[in-house]
Amino acid sequence: MGNVDYSSYPSPMNNEGEQHPRVAVPPPQPFFKSLKYSLKETFFPDDPLRRFKNQPPSRRLILGLQYFFPIFEWGPNYTFQFLKSDLIAGITIASLAIPQGISYAKLANLPPILGLYSSFIPPLIYAMMGSSRDLAVGTVAVGSLLLGSMLSTEVNPTQNPKLFLHLAFTATFFAGIFQASLGLF
User: Fold this and answer.
1) For residues 63 and 4, what is the distance between their CA atoms, to the nearest angstrom?
2) What residue ranges carry the coiled-coil annotation (predicted)?
3) What is the rounded distance in angstroms from the CA atom of residue 1 to the CA atom of residue 18?
4) Is 47 in a helix, a strand, or coil?
């Protein structure tokens, strides 16, 4: 912003008076080839499909199952020591997640048994389909409050509990479909 002294920048000449080699500018690419490369780099930066190239169909099936269900990849190497550690971690998390799930169900004006399901089912599914070893999944207070307040504006949970429950199931079903599609894409 203002006066810049360009004399402090190195010149293209080195100390012996020779010019530094210059990098050639790549030739311009056709628009669609450039767009294809940009989209591929944006959506698949690590090229998750490279493992499938030059593989026989039976191996591709196994790799596909391992891609969508990582339990098939790490399951054969699972040891008794891992099981002991996972049981201790599961008991620890359950002691917190079960009462938390019940209270979050009450925040959303839903039956407490649904809080138990939300404490047990998501981690079970994530254990089979998730890729991180250090992640906890389950309900959160903000989501429960948001769902309860959103549905309460449409249906009174005390006057029509069956419709309220059906709307809650529908809302969570579509949220799950949306989240699963984002996970796939």
Assistant:
1) 57
2) none
3) 32
4) coil
Rounded to 5°, the CA angle 147-95-110 comes to 25
d(CA 14, CA 18): 6
Q: Do the beta carbons of residue 128 and residue 69 sit within 8 Å? A: yes
Task: At 134, list the tokens.
Answer: 């250090």
Tell me if 142 sits within 8 A of 86, measured CB to CB. Answer: no
Q: What is the pTM of this model?
A: 0.59
Written as tens digits, the pLDDT of the chain (185 aa) is 555 555 555 555 556 666 677 888 888 889 999 898 888 888 777 777 778 888 898 998 988 888 888 888 888 898 999 999 989 988 988 888 889 989 999 988 999 998 888 888 888 888 888 877 777 777 788 888 888 899 999 999 889 999 999 999 999 899 989 988 887 77
